[in-house]
Design brief:
alpha/beta; Rossmann fold; 7 strands; 14% strand; globular
């Protein structure tokens, strides 16, 4: 579905009021993982739009589209495309549409993760083979497949960002099997950074603190996790999707052109607490 490109008719700055800096002016950004207006990925698309980028978004299925389309319209997304990473051919179609419309891709944001509830709520020891396989395929291997498809479109270099969580580094109560899954994601980020570095494609992970999102609400005792984060973070506040979006713009911009293979925390300092 084609919506519209970012509005280029905005009133330019004057000598007394210079135009705001747009570090990603004209760049093409694909954001995968918007589920609704409160998603981490939504904070990213809004920040990228404000930074001057052309936005490409995806939605999981027809049910999800009803929640994603209002966000796409708000940011003036150039393309809104279906993408179920388990559906054969859908991912290839997304990248083909980007190539047809723009001829290139500059930034890819991977903000999807999944685990069947029965495995998410159980012990790692009891995780089923099928549940583990699906969690790894959707949450980790999909990043590998996207990077492979993005590589030829990032012929002038680019930035790939994946959303992680501190539970991939330390054992977080109730995060369960998603801890090993996020650890695998961060390891994959490092490997992709090395392999794609010669193409001037940077790959980094952003690791936000707990946020009140639809995805997060699937974690058992999630309210306790939120309260603990607010209490223990040195700044005493929770991170917002806007905070994550602003950091994503920085890591997609030339300002961090020599930074790759990193996992960057954005949690008000929560991760430094014992």
């Amino acid at each position: 579905m084609s919506l519209q490109s970012p509005d280029s008719s905005e009133t330019p700055g004057t000598a007394d009021s210079p135009a705001p800096l747009k570090p990603l002016e004209g760049k093409v950004v694909l954001v995968v993982g918007v589920a609704n207006a409160h998603s981490i990925a939504t904070g990213c698309v809004k920040a990228f739009r404000a930074a001057g980028a052309h936005i490409v978004m995806t939605y999981l299925n027809a049910k999800a589209r009803a929640y994603v389309e209002p966000v796409a319209k708000e940011v003036g997304a150039a393309l809104l495309l279906p993408l179920d990473v388990e559906a054969a051919g859908e991912m290839e179609t997304v990248f083909s549409q980007i190539e047809t419309r723009f001829g290139r891709l500059d930034v890819l944001v991977h903000s999807i993760a999944y685990c069947p509830l029965e495995d998410l709520h159980g012990r790692v020891t009891d995780c089923s083979r099928q549940g583990f396989s699906r969690a790894m395929d959707i949450s980790v291997h999909s990043l590998i497949r996207m990077a492979r498809l993005a590589e030829p479109l990032m012929f002038e270099g680019g930035s790939i960002l994946a959303m992680s969580y501190y539970g991939g580094e330390k054992v977080v109560d109730h995060y369960n099997i998603m801890g090993p899954v996020k650890a695998a994601l961060e390891g994959t980020v490092r490997s992709l950074a090395v392999e794609l570095g010669p193409r001037r494609i940077r790959v980094n992970a952003l690791s936000p603190g707990p946020l009140k999102t639809r995805a997060g609400s699937g974690i058992a005792h999630f309210d306790e996790l939120i309260d603990d984060a607010r209490t223990r973070a040195p700044e005493g506040v929770l991170v917002t999707i806007e905070d994550v979006g602003n950091l994503a713009v920085i890591y997609a911009s030339p300002a961090t052109r020599r930074v790759t293979g990193e996992t960057v925390h954005i949690d008000g300092g929560l991760h430094v607490r014992a």
